[in-house]
């Protein structure tokens, strides 16, 4: 049947480029584009490269912070929105979709200019208060803040779907049995929405770890992993970058397998 | 969270006599909403407002923003017509090719496959979870001089150039966004009641007729969602043209990076960014209107 062979060839299309990078990571030669078998030296070189390690550390920390912030703030907002009237809620909906629809590149540019303008205003003030205060500048904090905008909107959409699908009868039953609201929250609501929160967290982490364009604008002098990879492939592909990419791909595969395993272990999650 | 359920959908408007209780409830509500409000204000509304203002300003002599009010930036947009025409051709074209390539796969997964369906579906999603940048640069190997062109040359077909052409960018687009298109299509095809297909066949419709008049209309929500997702991301695309277009095929995104980070012409860059957003919104609105008219009961499918 043609549909089957078509689908098989699409799977090849999806995986061939990834496989190619992994093969080229074991290149014995120096050129990124021609292959000589076989060596693992580039893995050692990649992990011995202080710039790569710094970028990796930055990316992981930024992704962790923005995922934590956005899951926390996003979930709080979902519960806050359950308690307000239609007009406020529609306003928040509009903002949420706006944050999702406006292209990352425009968000990056707009935050860059806004931050620079704001910092130029605030820094003289801060210096006037106490010259020992550190100056505000682009870097770690600005990347986390800018990433959290998009990922918070994402978390809000995911968690809200789950919250609205909650069985109201269970909540009423809990209240009828004189459970205080907080214990209803922790013992009835939270277990049911936990998978959605976790999904939001993972999605936020992946987005932030993977994002190039927003970080490219607002990272200042900091380097994240995508920024490092981008600037080095501009200079030409090296086996070192292929080795690094192979490790990243392997890590994300491991994460995916782990999350599938966790999901299968909890029926109904 | 006073005595009533925390799932309360609305705070009572103005009940007399419960002022203290309501006060606390209100305060909790606003506390819950405070961080997200702050984020939206400081990182979405304020920045967008700032570039809106900047887009009417003049460039200062050292780059950056020099104040003033002028329409010159918008009038000068013509100098970047190439970026706009590339984006406005390749973004819709890429979305369409994505849809055409993805549909049979989604149909296969949702309707034909019985065993290993969730594994096969995961295999489609896996690339989406791996770095977009890495997946894109992998195509430099395949499309570059020592890849497919060398292969074709050994078959006697000399002088084929792929890298840094619109074709390379299109391939990168389809490759990058295929998983994102397959998923919503799969969801809507999977929900489709298979008995309808049998009924259509029993009533004498050919397989093509069944597909055209039953399957296709019922999968419209998935198509609309997939097209929206991919199109939105493509309009702001930077990486694919930067890596596979090699400065020859550039999108508005590439022009923006150039204006902000290289030539530091912020007012003109702001005008370009505002125009991009306005264009996107206009296209999405028209598209949704058309989709609502021709797609019938498809409104629940969008996001």
UniProtKB/TrEMBL annotation, chain A:
The keyword Membrane applies. It is a multi-pass membrane protein. Gene3D superfamilies: MetI-like. InterPro entries: Bact_Polyamine_Transport, MetI-like, MetI-like_sf. Residues 56-259 form the ABC transmembrane type-1 domain. PANTHER family: PUTRESCINE TRANSPORT SYSTEM PERMEASE PROTEIN POTI (PTHR43848:SF2). This is Spermidine/putrescine transport system permease protein. It comes from Pseudomonas kuykendallii.
From TrEMBL, chain B:
Keywords: Cell membrane, Membrane, Transmembrane, Transmembrane helix, Transport. Its main location: membrane. The chain crosses the membrane at residues 30-56, 89-111, 118-142, 162-187, 222-246, 266-288. The keyword Transport applies. One of its GO terms (biological process) is transmembrane transport. One of its GO terms (cellular component) is plasma membrane. Belongs to the binding-protein-dependent transport system permease family. CysTW subfamily. This is Spermidine/putrescine transport system permease protein. The lineage of its organism: Bacteria, Pseudomonadati, Pseudomonadota, Gammaproteobacteria, Pseudomonadales.
């Amino acid at each position: 049947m043609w549909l089957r062979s078509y689908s098989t060839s699409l799977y090849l299309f999806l995986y061939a480029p990834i496989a190619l990078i992994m093969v080229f990571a074991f290149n014995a030669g120096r050129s990124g584009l021609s292959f000589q078998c076989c060596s693992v030296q580039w893995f050692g070189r990649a992990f011995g490269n202080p710039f790569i390690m710094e970028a990796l550390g930055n990316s992981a920390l930024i992704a962790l912070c923005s995922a934590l912030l956005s899951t926390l703030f996003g979930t709080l907002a979902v519960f806050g929105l359950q308690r307000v009237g239609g007009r406020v809620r529609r306003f928040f909906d509009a903002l949420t979709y706006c944050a999702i629809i406006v292209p990352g590149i425009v968000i990056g540019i707009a935050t860059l200019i806004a931050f620079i303008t704001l910092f130029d205003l605030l820094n003289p003030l801060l210096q006037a208060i106490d010259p020992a205060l550190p100056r505000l500048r682009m870097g770690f904090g600005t990347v986390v803040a800018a990433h959290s905008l998009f990922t918070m909107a994402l978390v809000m959409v995911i968690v809200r779907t789950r919250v609205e699908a909650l069985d109201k009868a269970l909540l009423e039953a809990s209240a009828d049995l004189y459970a205080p609201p907080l214990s209803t929250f922790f013992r009835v609501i939270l277990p049911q929405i936990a998978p959605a929160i976790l999904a939001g967290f993972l999605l936020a982490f992946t987005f932030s770890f993977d994002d190039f364009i927003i970080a490219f604008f607002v990272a200042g002098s900091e380097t994240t992993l995508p920024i490092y990879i981008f600037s080095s492939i501009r200079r030409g592909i090296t086996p070192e970058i292929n080795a690094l990419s192979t490790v990243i791909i392997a890590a994300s595969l491991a994460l995916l397998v782990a999350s599938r395993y966790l999901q299968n272990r909890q029926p109904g999650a | 969270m006073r005595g009533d359920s925390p799932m309360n959908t609305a705070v009572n408007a103005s009940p007399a006599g419960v002022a203290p209780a309501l006060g606390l409830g209100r305060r909790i509500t606003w506390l819950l909403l405070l961080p997200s409000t702050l984020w939206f204000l400081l990182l979405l509304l304020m920045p967008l407002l700032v570039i809106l203002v900047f887009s009417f300003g003049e460039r200062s002599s050292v780059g950056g923003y020099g104040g003033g009010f002028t329409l010159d930036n918008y009038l000068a947009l013509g100098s970047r017509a190439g970026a706009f025409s590339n984006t406005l051709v390749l973004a819709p074209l890429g979305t369409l090719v994505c849809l055409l390539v993805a549909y049979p796969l989604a149909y296969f997964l949702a309707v034909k496959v019985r065993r290993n369906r969730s594994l096969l579906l995961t295999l489609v999603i896996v690339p989406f979870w791996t770095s977009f940048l890495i997946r894109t640069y992998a195509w430099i190997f395949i499309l570059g001089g020592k890849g497919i062109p060398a292969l074709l040359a050994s078959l006697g077909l000399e002088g084929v150039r792929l890298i840094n052409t619109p074709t390379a960018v299109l391939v990168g687009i389809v490759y990058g966004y295929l998983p994102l298109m397959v998923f919503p299509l799969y969801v809507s095809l999977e929900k489709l009641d298979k008995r309808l297909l049998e009924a259509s066949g029993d009533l004498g419709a050919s397989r093509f007729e069944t597909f055209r008049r039953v399957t296709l209309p019922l999968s419209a929500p998935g198509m609309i969602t997939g097209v929206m997702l991919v199109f939105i991301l493509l309009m702001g695309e930077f990486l694919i043209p930067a890596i596979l277009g090699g400065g020859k095929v550039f999108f508005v995104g590439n022009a923006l990076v150039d204006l902000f980070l290289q030539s530091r012409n912020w007012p003109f860059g702001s005008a370009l960014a505002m125009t991009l957003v306005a264009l996107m919104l206009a296209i999405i609105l028209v598209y949704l209107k058309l989709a609502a008219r021709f797609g019938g009961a498809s409104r629940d499918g969008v996001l």
